[in-house]
Specification:
475 residues; alpha/beta; TIM Barrel; two-stranded antiparallel sheet; binds flavin mononucleotide
Length: 475
């Protein structure tokens, strides 16, 4: 029998009260307000490790959502991604109480220099014994730009060009600066590191000048597993060069497959293999022992969803809730003095009521299932086999019920169907869990591998072909 494709499953988290399920934190038994308590992370990590999850994936932003209603008040009232702790710092705590759980963590390439970040990630890769991944983002909040000395956001494609240089610096540090056998720890001769096996990188680029050598010796994976979420032409080109796991979307199976194949083609253009990129989607799974139990939970979550939280998260530049529901969106925009170009995703000739329903509905996952373990497992098998998904980031409606329900009800069913490994079977670095035993390091054909052994450190990378992918958007 052909081997069944197995699911890679992350819990989607953020060190804040309201990440993506707005309005649900006050529900009875929800632990979200404990996000600043280290015990929250210890308990959660153990539920996930023993519950059959592969990893926990931590989102991050570095600014306030202050576009909606021209200020941060709505976001603050809602606990919308603010207050928000530094996600890198909760990982060692979780690593200390787990052996297998992977950690995906978000960090932006736009504002902080690469040398310090290279050090932090190498530290995490050592402390977790090779269990970290990095979600590369370029950041989207205007307030983030103002927190780091800029008046406004750097244009979209330019952020990707800067990100490309950022990763280039990191590869030089992570892959090229130290040889694997540089640390000799020779007690007799009193030599810790062989200096002949460590080198400066002397990077001089458009945005960064970094001498090196890297200040941390090679960690189990060297480069953490590179995650990215994108759909834009520039982002796809970037993913083709760098990403190993991509969050992608699509409203239908065909659209999802087309997006994924665009990404794989970009990888091939960059000298990689089509299956060097794995695809993960955000998914909602509401499971109950009976259909009624699952439906009741879903109804509860829908009833408590906060439209204010959703609109603030969407950075809507017009407060549609301030207008009568039967007014057209066009008229509401006119009255608010907001140009149509600022909300290209809103249906202008529909009513405000319909638009509000659309905005709140569009949050609902394309990958959403409500039902018994059998119904859920059937859906997940379809996602794997028909849509071509490799894994999911599980959306949390309730902490820790969402994770516990999945662990107790869904994991056994998926194991029975051969879609998840038996308990404790996967024990390795994060890259090995994704790409198989013996694959802790970047494949040789990945761009980051060009610096191994100190090769190519002074050979500039070909510029990423962003102009061709999205002509004229540099400004
Ligand atoms: C599942 C998922 C998780 C994301 N997590 C973050 C995040 O934590 N922080 C962030 O700044 N952006 C996050 N984003 C936004 C992406 O980084 C990116 O801005 C978005 O996918 C649009 O990319 P594009 O402009 O290249 O199409 C996430 C997107 C998705 C789909």
């Amino acid at each position: 029998m052909a081997e069944r494709k197995q699911l890679f499953v992350n819990l989607f988290e953020m060190a804040c009260v309201s990440h993506i399920t707005h309005g649900l934190w006050p529900l009875p038994g929800n632990n979200r307000e404990r996000f600043a308590d280290i015990d929250y992370w210890l308990e959660l990590a153990q539920i996930l490790e023993h519950g059959g999850f592969d990893g926990i994936f931590l989102a991050d932003v570095i600014g306030a959502y202050d576009v909606f209603r021209d200020g941060p008040e709505t976001a603050l009232r809602e606990g919308l991604q603010s207050p928000n702790l530094d996600p890198l710092l909760v990982i060692p705590a979780m690593a200390a109480v787990t052996e297998r759980l992977g950690f995906g963590v978000t960090f932006s390439t736009t504002y902080e220099p690469p040398f310090a970040f290279a050090r932090r990630m190498s530290t995490l890769d050592h402390l977790t014994k090779g269990r970290v991944g990095w979600n590369v983002v370029t950041s989207y909040l205007p307030n983030a730009a103002r927190n780091f000395g800029l008046d406004g956001e750097i244009p979209h494609d330019l952020r990707y060009r800067y990100a490309d240089e950022y990763l280039d610096v990191l590869y030089k540090l992570w892959e090229g600066s130290w040889d694997d056998d540089a640390v000799v720890a020779d007690r007799e001769r009193g030599i810790f590191t062989d200096p002949a096996k460590v080198r400066y990188i002397d990077h001089v680029g458009e945005r960064h000048r970094v001498a090196g050598p890297h200040i941390v010796h090679p960690s189990p994976q060297r480069t953490p597993v590179i995650f990215q979420a994108t759909g834009s032409p520039a982002g796809i080109e970037f993913a083709g060069r760098h990403a190993e796991v991509v969050f992608t979307g699509g409203r239908t199976t065909e659209e999802f497959r087309r997006n994924a194949s665009n990404m794989s083609e970009a990888a091939v253009r960059h000298g990689r293999q089509a299956d060097d990129i794995k695809f993960i989607a955000m998914a909602g799974v509401i499971v109950g022992r009976t259909e009624e139990e699952a439906a009741d939970k879903w109804r509860l979550y829908q009833q408590h969803a906060s439209i204010d939280g959703i609109l603030a998260h969407a950075s809507l530049p017009v407060d549609l809730t301030a207008f009568p529901r039967d007014l057209t969106v066009r008229e509401a925009l006119n009255r608010a003095g907001v140009p149509q170009e600022r909300v290209p995703f809103l249906p202008l000739d529909r009513t405000v009521g319909e638009a509000l329903d659309f905005v709140s509905g569009s949050r609902e996952d394309r990958f959403l299932v409500v039902g018994t373990p059998t119904v859920v497992a059937d859906a997940i098998e379809r996602w794997l086999d028909e849509d071509g998904l490799d894994g999911i980031n599980l959306r949390q409606y309730h902490s820790f019920d969402t994770a516990r329900d999945f662990a107790e009800l869904v994991v056994p069913e998926l194991r029975k169907r051969g879609r998840l490994p038996a308990e404790g079977e996967r024990s390795a670095t994060l890259r090995e869990r994704l790409f198989g035993a013996g694959n802790s390091r970047l494949p040789d054909r990945h761009i980051g591998a060009r610096y191994r052994g100190g090769a190519n450190l002074h050979e500039p990378l070909e510029p990423l072909l962003l102009d061709a992918a999205n002509a004229g958007s540099f400004s």
